[in-house]
Amino acid sequence: MSKKILSIDTAVCTGAGTCEAMHPQLFRVSAEGYAVALKTELVEPEAIEAASSVLDVCPTEAIRLASAESQSDGDA
Fold first, then answer.
1. Less CB within 10 Å around the terminal CB: N or C of the chain?
2. 25, 52 in Cβ contact below 8 A?
């Protein structure tokens, strides 16, 4: 099973809330005004599909979804 890492680029997120409106189980807009990923390691196909569906609708393209394998290579 493929594991994905979900993250938010807070430098570009404007807190529009589209992600939270679509999938409140995965995203929340914080008091600071930007989205937060409630789950960062996704393994369930439904969760990966839900996160993927938000990638194209985020107005600032702040949502990142990467393969876990590519994230683990640079940890030093």
1. C
2. no
